Amino acid sequence: MARNGDLRLQILEQARSLLLAEGYAQVSMRKIANAVGCTPTSIYLYFDSKDSLFHSLIEEGMARLHEQLETVVSMYPNPEDRFRRLCRGYLEFGLENPEFYEIMFLLHPEQMMRYPTEKYRKARRNLQIFADAIADSRSDEPDFDPILSATVVWSLLHGAISLHLAKRVDVSLSTPAFIEQVVEHSVQMLQPHSS
Questions:
Q1: Torsion-angle region of residue 146: left (phi > 0), alpha (psi -120 to 50) or beta?
Q2: Do 77 and 28 belong together in one domain?
Q3: Average pLDDT, whole number, for the chain?
Q4: Distance, CA of 65 to CA of 91 (rounded, Å)
Q5: Nearest-angstrom CA–CA distance, 147 and 95
Q6: How large is the average pLDDT for residues 95-99?
Q7: Do residues 43 and 62 share a domain?
Q8: Are 160 and 90 in contact (CB under 8 A)?
Q9: Distance between CA atoms of 132 and 190, rounded to whole angstroms?
Q10: Domain membership of residue 63 as a residue range
């Protein structure tokens, strides 16, 4: 039997694998326990329900993304450089970590309990990082809404990742060139418009 911390990690890894392979409705605590090699009761020592287990998977992905974005913030004090690097970092995260990204954003388990408010607030920090970079670059415009702009940019980035992961992007396109174009369009969207 695995040590406590190891067992929790094994549970999360197997749950992630099963969720992506079979979908939310088909995964049970018993199925996860069988994949891990423990009893369903052992899983309940760490997670009080299937939903709380899957919420932990979402939280884990959001925390990894946050860590990557915070690294960018600490390395690029210039707002435009920071914003450009944040966009690139977000795209790279989604494309390099599809198993996390799909669980974070692409699963639609209608039967799952609502994501807990405190976890949602933590996840929202990722959007706030973009909003802060945008606000820093457009601080002289009092009517400019950085959260709205960050949400629009996130929509573009998310759409690009989703299409790429679903293999709906023309295979003849170079992935690095595709990423660069998405980043540049994101940056251009935030340039002040002349009246």
A1: alpha
A2: no
A3: 91
A4: 10
A5: 24
A6: 95
A7: no
A8: no
A9: 13
A10: 58-189
Tell me: the pLDDT tens digits for 45-83? Answer: 999 999 999 999 999 999 999 999 999 999 999 999 999
- What is the distance, to the nearest Å, from the Cα of residue 120 to the centroid of all Cα atoms in its chain? 12
Cα maximum dimension of the chain? 68
pLDDT confidence of residue 138: 80
3-class DSSP state of 68: helix
| 193: pLDDT strictly greater than 70 | no
Distance CA 39, CA 46 (A): 12
Residue with tokens 């802060």: 132
- CB of 94 closer than 8 Å to CB of 182: no
Residue 43 and residue 62 share a domain: no
pLDDT at 50: 93
8 Å CB contact between 87 and 158:
no
In this structure, the answer to whether residues 120 and 168 fall within a common structural domain is: yes
pLDDT value at position 111? 67
Cα 60-64-65 angle, rounded to 5 deg? 115
Q: Around Cβ 39, how many Cβ atoms within 10 Å?
A: 13
- DSSP SS3 for 76: coil
